Amino acid sequence: MPRLAADRYALVADIGGTNTRVALAEGRQLLPETIRRYRNADHPGLESVLRRYLHEEGDVDCAGACIAVAGPVRDGVGRLTNLDWTMDARTLARAAKAETVAILNDLEAQGHTLGHLAPDMLRPVLTGPEPAADAARLVIGVGTGFNAAPVHETRWGRVVAASECGHVTLPARTEADLRLSQFVETAHGFPGVEDVLSGRGFERLYQFVSREAGHPAGKKAAEIMATMGDDPRARETVAHFVRLFGAVAGDLALIHLPFGGIFLCGGVARAFTPHLAEFGFAAAFRDKGRFSELMTSFPVSVIEDDYAALTGCAAHLASLG
C-alpha cells in the first residue's frame, strides 16, 4: 500500500488476554479500514504485533501511540493479567516510532470512549432518571477477564480511575454460592469475581453446576450458550451467571454511585445481553435491601462496539494535546 504521511496519525491498540486489536486514528477518529485483529498466541509480545501491523500499513511513522492493557498499569508499565506480556513506554515508542505515548488499563480506555460512540452502539438494559452532565459513570468489562472503572468529569478534564476489581472476592448470598466459592478456590486458589464472571469463568461455572447435579462435565462457553434449549445444566449455568453478574454490578454501583449510567462492555457482556431480562439481571442488580430504591437511579447500557477501547485510546491521546 502507499506510504502514509509521517507524524499525522496515531497508533492505538487494545491488548486483551486472547487478541490484540490495532488501528490508526486521526485525532479522535479511527480509520475503519486500518483496524486489524491479531491472535496473541501467534506472537512473543506486543512489539512483534505492532511491528507486523505497521509493516502491513506501509511502515507509517506515527506521531503518537496509546495502548489499552488488560491488566494493571503502574509507573508507565503495563502487565497483562492472563498472559505473560509486559509493556512500557520506551518499548511502545520504539515499536510505533511515536513521540507521544500512553499506556492505559483496558477499562480506562473504555471510560475515555464514553461520549465518542455512535448512538446505535449503546443498547439500553435498565432505564433510569435523566443524568446530570457531570454525573459519575461506570464501565464494567466482561470478556477474557472482568474489570471496572469509574469515570468522572472534572474542571481539569476527564478522570478514569483504574482498578483490578475482577480479583476481589466473589460474593456469596446462598449455600450454593458458598459451595461455588469453595469449588473455585479449590481449582484456582482464590474465589475471585473473574473466576466466574468471564469467558473461562462461565465454563468453570458449568463444571460446578454439572457436579452439583451429580454428572461432572465440561463444555466450552459457545457450546453452553448453544445448548441452552437442550441441556438443563446449560440453562441453569446461564441463570447463575446472570444473577451473579447483576449482584456484582449492583455492588459496584453502590461503591461508585454512577448516576450518569453504567456501561457494560466486552465480548461476554455482549453475548449475555439477550438473556439479561429473562434470567433476572435487574432483580439481582437491585436486590440491596433498604437501598433497593436507590438502585433504580442507575441506568445500564451495553456498549456494542467491539472496537470501543480503540476509540477511547484515540480520545485520550488527543486530550494530551
Automatic annotation (TrEMBL):
Keywords: Kinase, Transferase
This protein's record includes keyword Hydrolase: no
Transmembrane segments: none
Pfam annotation, one family: Glucokinase
Alphabetized CDD domains for the sequence: ASKHA_NBD_GLK
Family: Belongs to the bacterial glucokinase family.
Name of protein: Glucokinase
Organism: Acidimangrovimonas pyrenivorans
